[in-house]
Amino acid sequence: MTHLRDRGATIDDSSEESLRRDLLSEQIVVLSEGEIEDYIPDTDVAAASGKDLAVVQRILASHGKRSSGFTALFGTGKPQYAMTLANQ
Questions:
Q1: Backbone region of residue 12 per phi and psi (left: phi > 0; alpha: psi in -120 to 50; beta: other values)
Q2: Per-residue confidence of the chain (88 residues) as pLDDT tens digits?
Q3: Which pTM does this prediction carry?
Q4: Would you list the domain boundaries of the chain?
Q5: Is the CA virtual torsion 78, 48, 52, 33 positive or negative?
Q6: How far are the Cα atoms of 6, 15, 30, 84 from residue 3, in angstroms, in the given order?
């Protein structure tokens, strides 16, 4: 945040809500919970992976972290499956 403040940004870090709001005003998005994969619907994952929805749900449920399930489904790392999802 020092960098942002040095650039003249007003960042109120007295609460999570104010910090999230001020970072968003600087075009920095902070997720409220979990990882970005938690926000992608299973139906979209099924469409992007080419796998049946039931298979997708079973694989995702068998992994502790949803991102680990994505890695198993797509057989790639985060940058690669992010591009696959973005191109849907």
A1: beta
A2: 788 888 888 989 898 889 989 999 998 888 877 888 999 999 999 999 999 999 999 999 999 999 999 999 999 999 999 999 988 8
A3: 0.69
A4: 1-30, 36-86
A5: positive
A6: 5, 19, 17, 33
